[in-house]
Amino acid sequence: MLVRPSTLATITLLSGFLVACRSQPPAEMTPAVTPFVTEASPPAVAPVEVTRVVEQAVAVTAGPTPTATPEPPKELTVCMTHEPESLYRYGDPLFGAAEIATQAVQHAVYESLYTTLSYSYQAQGLVKLPTLEDGDAELQRVTAVAGDRVVSAAGHVARLVEGLRVFDAVGQEVAFDGRTPVEMTQMVVRFQLRPMAWSDGVPVTAADSVYSFSLAADADTPGNKQAIERTAAYVALDDWTTEWRGLPGWRDPTYFTNVWSPLPRHQLGGRTAIELLTAAETTRQPLSNGPFVIAEWVAGDHIRLERNPYYYRAAEGLPRLDRLFFRFLPNAEQVVAQLLAGACQVATQDGLGLAQAPLLWEGQQDGLVSPAFASGLVFEHLDFNIAPVEEYAATRPAWFADERVRQAFALCLNRQAIVEAVTYGLAPVLDVYLPPEHPLYPADLTTWPYDPARANELLEAAGYRDNNGDGLRADPATNAPFQVWLGVNQDSPLRQQVAEMVRQDLRACGIEVEVRALPAEEWFDPRGPLFGRRFDLALFPWLIGSSPDCGLYLTSAIPSPANGWEGNNETGWSNAEYDAACQAALAAPVGSAEYAAQHRAALRLFADNLPVIPLFLHVKVAAVTAVRHFHLDPTQPSELYNVYEWDLEEE
After folding, report:
1. From CA 303, how far away is CA 297, in angstroms rounded?
2. How many CB atoms lie within 10 A of CB 172?
3. 335 vs 281: CA distance, rounded Å
4. In 3D, which of 497, 302, 507, 267 has the Cα closest to residue 409?
5. N or C end of the chain: smaller count of CB under 10 Å?
6. ∠ at Cα 194 (132, 125), nearest 5°?
C-alpha cells in the first residue's frame, strides 16, 4: 500500500510517470536514432584470482599432448539509464527507476531468499517458505503482563497498560485491567537457509542473517522499521536456521517474509551502522553470495561482474554466463540504439517506456530485438468525492452519494479506448483494484463495460434529467446543472490526456466536466483539495502489490481532522460490510482459505458500490536480443531475479 502523506514524494513521483499516446505520439516517440559510440570500450577483463588447493593425478604419456582451444567466455551486457549510488542493502531508500536499477545489480550480487512472481511468493535462497500447515510456522500461547510490548487490537505497537484493548488467545477483544495477565498468541516462524558461501569462501550462516537484522534495526540505519518494531526476537537456532518471534497479538499475514537477507558479519562486524552507509565494502565492493561478484566499477560508464566461483549452485552449471556488464547510458533512445546495434543484449525497465514501443516493434519485425511487456504495479483510477468535508458539501449537490450515479459514470466511460490510446492496448481495463489475472480475482465480479445507453437509463432512474433541453442533466433536489470538476496534477501529460477523454465521454451522458490541472504540491498536499476532500472527481495513481490493498477504502482510512488528514480513502466512502470483509482479509495469513474468501468478498462489494472507477495499470517495458530465460514479471520488481539462469542463444 502506498502510505500517505508521509510518502508524498513517492506519489508525486508516480504522478510524473509518462505513458506514450498512440493517437497523438509525442515527438520523442520516433527519434532519429544514431548508434551511441563510447570513446572506449570497457577495459579488458582481468581473470579473477581464486586461491584453492587442487589434488590431481597426472598420467605421463610419451609425446606432447594437444592443447584444446578454450571456449571464449560467455558475456552479456545490460544497458540501463540509471546507475546505482550504492549496493548496500540498507542504504537510503530509493524510488522509481533508480530503485529498479539498483535492485537489478543487487540481484546479480546477492541471492534472493524469496521471489514475488505472479502475485505470489516463492522460496529461492530458502529451502522453503514456512507455513502454518507444515509446522515451521506456528501460533504459540504466551502470557502478557503489564508493561510488555504487544500489538493492540487496533494494530499498533504499544505497552500493555490499563485500558489497552488486545485480542486474547481465543481471538476475543478484551481490555487489559492493569493487573490480570492476558493469554495472547505469538507467531513463531523458522527459516532454513540453503548452504551458501560468500565470494571469499566463508560460509553464509544464520548468524549473518541475525547480524543483518541488527543493522536494519539500528536507529542510524534508514528504512522502514515496521517489521522490526513488531519483532520480539530474531535469533539463529543453528548454522542454517533462524527463528522470528512476533510481538504478542501480531498475526502477520506475510509472516513467511520476516527473514533478513544475510550480510557478511566476518567482514563488516567491526563497523558501526553509520560507517556502513558509506563503506566501500558495502556500497561498491560488497562480498557476494549470489551468482556474480563485482570486478570493476567505472563510475558513469559501467560495472563489470565475474562469475562467483563460490556460488552455491555452481555444481548445476550456474550461473551460465561467465561475465556480466552493466552499462549506463544517458537516455532511453541511446539504450534502444545500443540494443539494435548489438552492443547490449538486455535493456531493463528502468530505462525504457511505452514511448520506445514503436521502435522496439520495428526492430522486432527486422529480427533484431524481442520486446517484453508486463503489467506494472501502478494503477490509475478516477475517484468520486462521495462524502465531502462539511464546508465543501454545503456548496455542492450530493452528486455521488447514489451508487447508481457512480455506476452510470463507469458505463459512460470508454475505458478500452483510453487503454488503447495511452498503453497501445497492452494494459487490461481494470474493474477493481487488482488486475484480471490476479489469482484472487472473483469469477462472478460485477463489471461496468462501456454502455452509454444503459448509463443514461441509470441516470434517469436516479432522477438526473435534462429539464430544459440544454443537454445537461440536473440534480433532482436542487435543479443545479450536473457540472463538476476533475482534478489532476499538472506535471502529468498522461493524466491530462485521460482527463480530456473522460470529459468527452461524460458530456455524451449529459454531464459537464471541467478539467483542472493543479501543481502536484498543492493537489497532493495532506490538507489540499484531494486529501482534504474538497474536490468533485480526481484522477491519480496508487501502488499495488502481490496482495490486494483493500485497506485503501476502509472507513477508518477516510482523511479527517480526527486522524490528522492522514487517511488514504479520500472518497469518504463508508461501507460496514466491506470494512468487515477487508479487516478479516488483512488479518488472515496470506494463502489461507479465509484470506482468499474475505478478499473476494471485499472485491465484490467494491465492484458493486464503485467508490472509484479503476482505469488501467501502467506497463513495464524491457527488451532483449538472443537471451534465454529472460522474463518480465508483473510483481517481481527487477527482471534480473533469475540472472543466474540467463544464457545466450546459440547462433
Report:
1. 4
2. 9
3. 30
4. 507
5. C
6. 75
- CA-to-CA distance for 400 and 409, rounded, in angstroms? 10
Burial category of 34 from C-beta neighbours within 10 Å (exposed 0-12, middle 13-18, buried 19 and up): exposed
Looking at the predicted structure, is the pLDDT value of residue 651 above 70? no
Cα 405 vs. chain centroid, distance in angstroms? 33
E-assigned strand segments in 603-648:
612-624, 627-628, 647-648
Q: 137, 117 in Cβ contact below 8 A?
A: no
Q: Which residue has the cell 557476494?
A: 288
**Burial class for 222, CB neighbours closer than 10 Å (0-12, 13-18, 19+):** middle
187's enclosing H/E stretch is strand 182-192
Using DSSP, state whether 84 is helix, strand or coil: coil
| 401 has pLDDT over 90 | yes
Cell of 124: 529461492
Q: Which residue has the cell 533484431?
A: 368
What is the phi/psi pair of residue 306, to 5°? -115, 160
* Mean pLDDT, residues 178-197: 98
Instruction: Please state, in angstroms and rounded to a whole number, the distance separating the CA atoms of residues 82 and 330.
Output: 8
| Calpha distance 220→216 (Å, rounded) | 9
Residue 481 has pLDDT above 70, yes or no: yes
pLDDT of 19 higher than 80: no
DSSP string spanning 280-315? HHHHTS---SSSEEEEEEETTTEEEEEE-TT-TTGG
What is the phi/psi pair of residue 379, to 5°? -120, 140
Burial state string for 398-436 with b = 16 or more CB within 10 A and e = fewer than 16: ebbebbbbbbbbbbbbbbebbbebbbbebbbbbbbbbbe
Query: Cα(3)–Cα(11) distance, rounded to whole angstroms?
Result: 9
Listed as own residue / partner, the contacts of 263-268 with beta carbons closer than 8 Å and 24 or more positions apart are 263/89, 263/208, 263/211, 263/212, 263/215, 264/198, 264/200, 264/202, 264/204, 264/208, 265/207, 265/208, 265/211, 266/198, 266/202, 267/198, 267/200, 268/211
SS3 20: coil
